[in-house]
């Protein structure tokens, strides 16, 4: 139950950031942060639930590298947009 609550919070925070982007100083950085939270939601879904379509992603080295790289690239984008974006 805690996992589902955490996943719901990640999804809600990500969507809220994207929907309220125009009220922030740097909307592109806020959208990237919202996508970051949605990516965290996706990764917790893949790792937390046993669905056959996700088994390759969860159980292979390539899939694990992909999940980590999605989060790291998104985090770098948030930082770059926050520092240098409009």
Structural descriptors:
86 residues; mainly alpha; single chain; 84% helix
Q: Can you walk through the features of this model?
A:
By secondary structure, this protein is mainly α. It has one domain. The chain is built from four helices and no strands. α2 packs antiparallel against α4 and α3 crosses α4. The longest helix is centred in the C-terminal third of the chain and has 24 residues.
Mean pLDDT over the residues: 90
Count of separate DSSP helical elements: 4
Give helix % range: over 70%
Strands, count: 0
- In percent terms, what proportion of residues is strand? under 5%
Major beta-sheet overview: none
Shape: flat
| H/E topology pattern | HHHH
- As a whole number of angstroms, the C-alpha radius of gyration is 14 Å
Helix-strand blueprint:
Blueprint: H1 2-19, H2 27-48, H3 52-59, H4 61-84
Helix pairs in contact: 1-2, 2-4, 3-4
């Amino acid at each position: 139950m805690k996992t589902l609550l955490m996943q719901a919070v990640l999804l809600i925070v990500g969507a809220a950031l994207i929907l309220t982007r125009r009220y922030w100083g740097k909307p592109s950085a806020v959208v990237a942060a919202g996508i970051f939270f949605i990516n965290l939601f996706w990764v917790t879904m893949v790792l937390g639930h046993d669905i056959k379509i996700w088994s390759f992603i969860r159980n292979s080295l390539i899939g694990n590298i992909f999940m980590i790289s999605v989060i790291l690239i998104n985090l770098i984008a948030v930082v770059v947009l926050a520092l240098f974006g409009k």
